[in-house]
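Problem 12. The chain below contains 299 residues. Write out its predicted structure in token notation.
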Amino acid sequence: PQQKLQRVQAALRMEAANNHAGAINAYRELIAQDPADARLHYHLALALHATLEFEAALQAARAAVRLNDTIPEFFALQALVYRGLNRLDDARAAADRGLQLDPNNIACAKVLGDICFLRGDTDEGLARLGPLFDRGCDHPQFLVVYAQLLAARGQRQDARAVLERALAKPGINPQSAAPVHLHLGSIAEKLEDFDAAWNHYTTGNRLRGLAFRPAEHDAAITDIMTVWSKDRLARLPRAKGKKSEQLVFIVGMPRSGTSLVEQIIASHPDVYGGGELNFVNNAARDLVVPTLKEPTVLA
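Solution.
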């Protein structure tokens, strides 16, 4: 037991340090020794989710729930993984199961509100999260989701007040404050309070602590251009399915107006805007990550 405890603590430290690959290996080794420990499967799912390995994360999350179906956080994580797979109905069902266990569980409420926001179910999201908000919940991530729902319904001033309430939480850490500032920047911009928007954007990005490394960026872009040459792209397989009039894909470079185009099209009553989905990102990751020089699709 003492040896296992030390190994678990080491895995948790790797997870906290964002060494997800190391944590994944550690948790898998621990699970091989003790497959009935639900929390090991839960933490494995967390690490896999962080690396966008959603299918593997789903298996681990399901194992955690199968071993112990009384912990709301297990269902919250399962919902997050389903969301990453764009299985929003399953994500909603998992979040609901967690809230049945604990109606005040912030993790489950947050992911449920996010799913309602993605699906355009604004009123339902506000109704489901409202009781927690009215009871004074000041968790920053929860308040960000609640503010998003308010803003989606056109209540931007109310959303701004909610986010300012999040920043007023004593001892809020930089990781939690960063997204609050970034969302406040977006709302202030829409309210044409541009000085406040700039200040929030600047503060949010500073708190994120991201460092741009030009040499690493240039090397990565050069590698991608080398791998995905014109000749190699021409040799990739092509889809041969039937054409469909039900799906519209809007693609473009960042800040090129794709979100605006989606909003315009989605304003039609017969169109639903799906938001920024991760299908293409996932496909690109699967093609490039295993080996940059020899994409798996051509192996």
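Discussion. The radius of gyration is 21 Å. Students who got a different answer should revisit the alignment rule from Section 12.3.
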